[in-house]
User: Which sequence fits this backbone?
């Protein structure tokens, strides 16, 4: 009966609304999965990025209400990156159209390969092999690399996995795979449970440069990817609309059939 | 043909998934409306709350990538309030279940009354009269008061509308209407395009105290409410998952049939 789901998700209903034909889209779901880590002051932070602070400025006892001041880098915690993150003149997060914040998710599980080789880079062959099993990656998808790094989140040392020279080691997209996904599959974005869609030891940031250069967005530091199916989930990306921002910490919810 | 929409929205499809019967929910939409103001350093800020700052910590020219540090109060800009905002021991924003972040929206337009009287408070009679036209407010809704204040956003003085004594004047929910919505209609939250679901001159914060005390959430400083129908839209509330937070600046998207 699982075929029903696949039939329902892409269904576009056409009907006359107010005299004109309006295209109706449908999100079918049975559960909502939160792909966001909690924002804490001791979460893993990219070297050079500000350490987050969460400090009370009013309390129920004193002012009658409680609230904190939050200070955080735009790319800390679970976050979105906008084209301006790597390209001067690229769209800032407030300019990214809302349609780019609602995307079908494709999940490529490379946990096995990542466990054997923390420098593993997703190849075009990996993608073609994934497609043989799950079908062609739809245009406009968010393609998420599930590396298993989400389980290292509470151990920043293991999460960054730096060697003695300070080079990071975590898996990511290869430049070729990124180019293939952007040019041949016309994806809208790339995501991962590590701190970068770029492999830790890719100091050229090739995937980000290619993807954001094409107007795409990234999602980094995702979690709960084990609760997503390979296809069929729809993401709603709650990025703050920061004027002129390079990106934003975000609440990312997955609607899973 | 508009009846089709009404038939489709509440449809719950039952089918066997993986051997067990799973309840499937459906969001039908033809457009996405962004209910969030952009976060800027000169937006209206509640007295005593921190002035937001957005400052670059890395640039494409120097570091190869651009990002800002954002400092902001949890209740600045378009934001969500969690029970802990008014009640010690109430749920903090990271504890609010994801189901509370996906809510059907009900919009009550009081622009006419608000223009005549900036201190107008929504009454139980207003609600009953709204229900005569649009049907009973569904359990678990987010009831949004559309006051017209969204058009004052770029003029902080007009937005707060303080008198010579410093008392604010904007419309809100009355205590009675709040109690009715929470107790008789079991709503999940209340929203508004002003800086408070509490009327500007209600120094007891009655609506917030009642709503958040019942475990509800608020949405304040909303915009684009003129683009929402009275019923039928579904909100997805992108609140940051701030550990121990009283609430959060948020991206609020409305899915409109």
Assistant:
């Amino acid at each position: 009966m699982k075929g029903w789901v696949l039939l329902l998700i892409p269904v576009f209903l056409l009907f006359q609304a107010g005299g004109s034909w309006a295209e109706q889209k449908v999100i079918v779901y049975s559960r909502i999965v939160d792909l966001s880590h909690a924002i804490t002051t001791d979460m893993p932070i990219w070297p050079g990025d500000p350490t987050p602070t969460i400090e009370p400025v009013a309390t129920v006892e004193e002012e009658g209400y409680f609230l904190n001041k939050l200070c955080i880098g735009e790319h800390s915690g679970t976050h979105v990156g906008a084209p301006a993150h790597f390209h001067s003149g690229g769209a800032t997060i407030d300019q990214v159209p809302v349609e780019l914040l609602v995307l079908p998710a494709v999940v490529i599980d490379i946990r096995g390969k990542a466990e054997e080789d923390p420098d593993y880079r997703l190849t075009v062959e990996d993608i073609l092999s994934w497609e043989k099993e799950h079908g062609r990656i739809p245009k406009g998808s968010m393609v998420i690399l599930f590396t298993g790094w989400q389980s290292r989140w509470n151990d920043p040392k293991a999460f960054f996995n730096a060697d003695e020279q300070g080079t990071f080691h975590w898996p990511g997209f290869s430049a070729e795979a990124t180019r293939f996904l952007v040019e041949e599959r016309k994806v809208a974005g790339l995501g991962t449970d590590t701190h970068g869609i770029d492999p830790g030891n890719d100091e050229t940031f090739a995937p980000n440069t290619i993807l954001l250069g094409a107007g795409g967005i990234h999602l980094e530091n995702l979690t709960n990817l084990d609760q997503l199916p390979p296809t069929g989930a729809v993401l709603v990306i709650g990025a703050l609309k920061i004027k002129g921002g390079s990106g934003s910490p975000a609440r990312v919810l997955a609607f899973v059939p």
About this structure: The helical segments of chain B are 2-8, 111-116, 124-134, 156-160, 175-184, 206-213. Chain B touches chain A through 79 residues (CB under 8 Å).
